[in-house]
Specification:
The chain is an alpha/beta fold. It is built from 12 helices and 13 strands. It has a domain of 223 residues: 3-Layer(aba) Sandwich (Rossmann fold), CATH 3.40.50.
Length: 344
């Protein structure tokens, strides 16, 4: 019996394609029943949704976190005994080995936006792949990012690219997912800008022309579940995940303002000013942008032409507007009730 009740409100039901893709998806769902899957970083934003998708399909989970108290919100998503928790750090191979013991598959979601990129994205990812291979795990799913490239001008992009190489060297059949910006109820992207728009009458935008292809976290979770259901179909391949719309940073901010009912003046921050802020303020806590983030904004974050994507898994991408209203009401002028009054 699958998890039911209020927990399903965390994400909308899976939106699979029609016809053969839908039939294929249903077959895949059944293949996860009873399998033990270890998720490194399973207590985070993306981990919450992937965990729910797998639990709904009957998988057993072992959530691996440095601090397992950060993952206890996953337990109510499944049935009694369906979820285990283990303390682990991807940079410490012995703890990784304890976490993956007897697992059928492994997922690595661990990533950082600041700090020691190489230690986490390269060394840590390599540890997970090496240990998963040595333990005889059937499949490994590695979450990377669009822009992962060993020749990237940003340290983040280089570390993601080097991390992919380390993973494939140790586990050649690993499945690599490269999402664009992931959005959802608990994200740190859309929510950050929504909070700023709610407070400021004049909103500065850094990197206004940089384009993104925001992808819904529920769709990423459905892709992960499909990939692990029949890993032989996706082994050793890389997939780029993007939503149905390509939006510039400026477009995203204006879309958020519209969704929350705020009439704001937006000011594009000149590139030289953004670079100066990144250079001189970036090293300090609370800086609006770091030097590495500035470098990342010099390139679009969209699915590459010809790249394999979500259609390979039979998952239809969800637009921001289709799900954002469920959590954006708190950023309207008078919260949920103000939004309803305005609609009348």
């Amino acid at each position: 019996m699958l998890a039911k009740g209020r927990n399903r409100l965390l994400r909308r039901p899976p939106r699979w394609g029609r016809g053969k893709a839908e039939t294929k998806a249903r077959m895949m769902d059944m293949d996860l029943d009873g399998r033990l899957i270890c998720i490194f970083g399973g207590g985070g934003f993306v981990g919450r949704y992937i965990s729910q998708a797998l639990l709904e399909r009957g998988a057993r989970l072992r959530i691996a976190e440095r601090n397992i108290s950060n993952a206890m919100h996953i337990k109510p998503l499944g049935n009694l005994g369906q979820t285990q928790f283990v303390s682990a750090d991807v940079t410490k191979k012995d703890s990784v080995a304890r976490a993956v013991r007897d697992c059928d598959a492994v997922i690595n979601l661990v990533g950082v936006l600041k700090g020691d990129f190489e230690r986490v994205h390269v060394e840590g990812a390599g540890n997970v792949a090496e240990v998963a291979a040595a333990a005889g795990c059937r499949a490994l799913l590695h979450l990377s990012a669009i822009g992962a490239d060993s020749d990237s001008p940003s340290r983040y992009g280089r570390s993601k690219g080097d991390g992919e190489k380390a993973v494939l060297q140790a586990f050649p059949d690993a499945i690599i997912l490269r999402p664009s910006i992931i959005f959802g109820r608990e994200d740190q992207f859309i929510n950050r800008f929504a909070a700023m728009i709610a407070m400021l009458p004049v909103v500065p935008i850094i990197g206004s022309s940089t384009r993104f292809q925001p992808v819904f976290v529920g769709d990423v979770a459905d892709v992960a579940a499909a990939a692990l259901s029949h890993p032989e179909l996706y082994a050793g391949q890389t997939y780029e995940l993007g939503g149905p719309e390509i939006l510039s940073m400026g477009d995203i901010n204006r879309r958020i303002a519209k969704l929350t009912g705020h009439d704001r003046t937006f000011v594009d921050v000149p590139d030289f000013a953004a670079k100066a802020m990144a250079t001189f303020l970036g090293p300090f806590p609370g800086a609006p942008i770091t030097a590495d983030q500035y470098k990342m904004l010099q390139n679009d974050n969209v699915v590459a032409s010809g790249a394999k994507g979500m259609d390979a898994f039979g998952v239809a991408p969800t637009p921001l507007a289709a799900v954002a209203s469920g959590w954006m009401e708190k950023y309207t002028a008078h919260g949920r009730f103000g939004a309803r009054a305005k609609e009348k």
